[in-house]
Write a structure and sequence with these properties.
Helices cover 31% and strands 9% of the residues. The protein has 229 residues and is α+β, with helices and mostly antiparallel strands. Strands 1-2-3-4 form a four-stranded antiparallel sheet, with no helix packed on it. The longest helix has 24 residues.
Length: 229
């Protein structure tokens, strides 16, 4: 990672140098096992092995895919998992215990959106207007509930930009796999997959794939420095 900071084409790597937000190929200091344990207790979950190893052996955030891996800060004061303290939306319940990650809720949410009440389906009277408003309010409340539930049991690990995020499933059958929060494009939460593949991707595969591409791109000599003779 240190070598990439001196690579001739380092600025071409997406997210590395973006105004003051770029990760600049810098990693946060690793966490101790005790610190990771404390973070897990705070969230009420045990991190997948690959992510846990990353925090203790590589860094607690920084250089990585997109605009970098989100930093994990250990709690300054030990917090019991039933205290209600959370630091990532959707990761835990109000009691601080991990919720199940259920990506199938995206289909439920899409079905719900397709059933959005339409004013034209109601009559023209004042009573009809009131019935529509009540129906729409109930639909809208449920839409918010479903939309928020899509990321339950998952951890935000990076920001892709334009309101898109990358998630790591912490619980359920998909535990340890990577997902994309593309609710900004009204597509819900979908599996992260490499181009041309539908296979699930783990955290280590996601990170190593980025590192391999970043190294290749960063060490390409910029066009304005090549020999054009």
């Amino acid at each position: 990672m240190l070598a990439l900071r001196e690579a001739p084409n380092r600025r071409a790597v997406f997210g590395a140098y973006f105004k003051e937000y770029g990760h600049r190929f810098e990693l946060r200091p690793v966490l101790t096992e005790e610190q990771v344990d404390a973070v897990e207790r705070r969230r009420g979950v045990t991190f997948p092995a690959e992510y846990r190893s990353f925090l203790m052996e590589v860094g607690a955030g920084g250089a990585g895919p997109d605009y970098g891996v989100f930093t994990v800060e250990p709690p300054e004061v030990e917090v019991e998992p039933d205290s209600g303290v959370t630091s990532e939306p959707g990761a835990t319940s109000e009691t601080g215990r991990a919720l199940p990650f259920r990506p199938e809720r995206t289909a439920e949410w899409e079905e719900h959106r397709a059933a959005e009440p339409q004013r034209s389906a109601y009559g023209d009277s004042d009573e009809d207007g009131e019935r529509f408003r009540e129906a729409y309010a109930a639909w809208d409340k449920r839409d918010d509930e479903l939309l928020e539930s899509l990321t339950e049991g998952a951890l935000y690990v990076s920001e892709q930009g334009c309101g898109y995020y990358t998630l790591l499933a912490l619980t359920g059958p998909e535990r340890g796999t990577m997902w994309q929060d593309v609710r900004a494009a009204a597509e819900g939460v979908i599996p992260f997959a490499f181009l041309g593949s539908t296979d699930r991707v783990t955290f280590a595969e996601w990170y190593v794939h980025w590192l391999t591409r970043a190294e290749r791109q960063a060490w390409q000599v910029p066009e304005d420095r090549t020999d054009r003779s």
